[in-house]
Write a structure and sequence with these properties.
The chain has helices at residues 12-15, 31-37, 157-163, 275-281, 307-313, 316-329, 375-381, 402-405, 409-424, and strands spanning 5-8, 18-26, 42-43, 56-62, 74-78, 85-93, 113-116, 118-119, 125-126, 128-134, 141-142, 149-155, 169-177, 182-191, 194-195, 200-202, 213-221, 226-233, 242-243, 253-260, 268-273, 286-287, 296-298, 332-337, 351-352, 359-361, 386-388, 445-453, 458-460. It is of the alpha+beta class and 463 residues long. A seven-stranded mixed β-sheet has the order 17-13-20-10-21-24-25. The protein has a five-stranded antiparallel β-sheet with strand order 3-28-6-2-4. Strands 12, 14, 15, 16 and 18 form a five-stranded antiparallel β-sheet that branches. Helix 4 runs antiparallel to helix 6 and helix 5 runs parallel beside helix 9 (409-424).
Length: 463
């Protein structure tokens, strides 16, 4: 079956620099969108996000993929009466041997994009894309020198309860994404207190090959189900912390789930560790309000120390287990965002914790494994074998942390250590987007936005 969409590279040279391309659908037809559509593209980090009502993903391509084809009964609707504008987001990544300091980006003009195939013969099911995972943010901290670091991004049941239809949705393909040090990704499904079989599990990820993968059978997700993107990283080759972000030297933990029937209430379902969880994971009880540079108020033995100094001097080797426990069991901010790039009504202040799972799946090795060459087949044959396990949530100090974190002072303190380490570490981290962070360090991934206008109503599908 031919692809529904596929990459189109401007040249053989550009193919080696384009890391991923995402086509977004924009809701409405505001004068601001009209003006932007007539301008040239701009760096993503300089865009005024408040006027970009473009939070629905139509198509996503990542390096290593040749494109994607929908099942015969499913297509993505291009509806001119609801969406006249589409936004193309393109990320460019330098090759490994070009990670030099200071960065020396090459001058380059590129016109790469996506080729879409569409038809006026509508299919029976409209597809949608749901992003599940950890919101790309500095609060996603990965300690250095560890072979097995677990991060989890939660799509909480309050989000799916409000958005999904009564009969649920069916996930039929997933794109699972980390950056350079990601090793495994799993999309978990929790219903009430029971963990069902993982929807997808990649035990050997390759950041240069993260395309959409069709599931053998669609998986139904019901209203109230919780989805968890679980990522495992190997940071053993790094001596500095890795922070979450959009550049390839930072990290991410995201799963793009293709599903049907489409709903527009929920397009982005992420989580973000609360600020109390982050500072408690570093052995800090309280920060000095309004301090710049950010200083620690308690415990007494750390009083007066800056946050940056704490990150530099922290004994990750001996404190890793407690760090991992706090980050996985502490509070987080649940983010349920709609197609209009706004929180769903009633979800603005959701606080979440890890689920209290009392029943989870467990594969039991048996003679059925002997001589089997199809591990996936054995996996599904054993899907109903469970073991009862109880887990207790740890109620760390919560509260509204938006005010203290809104001025980026804390983020600057966290990223400054990472930025300086990049100078001497070929596999270190950049300081984040140069246009958004007060660090003066250039990113190694460049992202541009370009508007495209569609005037007719079709569904993306093979002709």
């Amino acid at each position: 079956m031919p692809n529904v969409y596929e990459p189109v590279f401007d040249s053989g040279t550009s193919a080696s620099y384009v890391y991923h391309m995402i086509l977004h659908e924009c809701q409405g037809s505001s004068p601001e969108l009209e003006i932007m559509s007539r301008e040239n593209g701009c760096p993503c980090y300089r865009a005024d996000k408040s006027i970009l009502t473009c939070n629905s993903i139509v198509a996503a391509w990542t390096r290593g993929s040749e494109g994607f084809s929908f099942p015969s009964q499913v297509g993505y609707p291009l509806e001119s009466n609801q969406a006249r504008f589409y936004l193309m987001e393109t990320h460019y990544s330098l090759t490994a041997n070009e990670y030099t300091w200071p960065p020396k980006p090459k001058a380059m003009v590129d016109n790469s994009g996506l080729r879409l195939f569409y038809t006026s013969a509508l299919r029976s099911q409209d597809a949608g894309v749901l992003s599940v995972g950890m919101d790309p943010n500095w609060r996603h901290i990965i300690p250095p020198g560890q072979e097995h670091v677990v991060s989890e991004g939660h799509c909480v049941g309050e989000c799916t309860q409000r958005a999904f239809p009564r009969d649920g949705v069916h996930i039929f393909a997933v794109m699972m994404r980390t950056h350079q040090i990601g090793r495994q990704i799993k999309l978990r499904q929790i219903r009430h207190r029971e963990e069902l079989l993982p929807i997808a599990h990649d035990r050997n990820t390759d950041w240069n090959y993260q395309e959409y993968r069709r599931l053998s059978d669609p998986v139904r997700v019901m209203p109230g189900d919780r989805l968890i993107a679980e990522c495992i990283y190997d940071s053993s080759a790094r001596t500095a912390i890795t922070l979450g972000g959009l550049t390839t030297r930072e990290e991410t933990c995201l799963v793009l789930a293709l599903y049907y029937p489409r709903q527009k209430e929920l397009t982005t379902c992420h989580s973000l560790p609360s600020l109390p969880t982050v500072i408690n994971s570093l052995g800090i009880n309280e920060l000095v309000p309004g301090s710049n540079p950010v200083r620690i108020a308690s415990p007494p033995e750390l009083s007066g120390m800056t946050l940056e100094t704490r990150l530099i001097s922290y004994d990750w080797r001996n404190n890793f287990r407690s760090f991992q426990y706090v980050t996985r069991r502490g509070s987080f901010k649940a983010m349920c965002w709609s197609a209009k790039n706004q929180p769903m009504p009633g979800t603005e202040n959701l606080e979440g914790f890890a689920p209290n799972i009392t029943k989870s799946y467990k594969l039991i090795r048996s003679c059925s494994f002997v001589g089997s060459t199809n591990v996936a087949s054995v996996f599904f044959k054993n899907r109903n074998r469970y073991v009862t396990e109880s887990e207790t949530s740890v109620d760390l100090a919560g509260g509204d942390d938006d005010d203290i974190d809104s001025n980026n002072v804390i983020e600057g303190a966290a990223r400054s250590k990472v930025s300086r380490s990049s100078v001497t570490e070929s596999m270190g981290l950049s300081g984040g987007p140069a246009t958004c962070r007060p660090l003066g360090a250039a990113p190694n991934m460049f992202a541009f936005l370009l508007f495209i206008i569609f005037l007719y109503s079709f569904r993306i599908a093979t002709v």
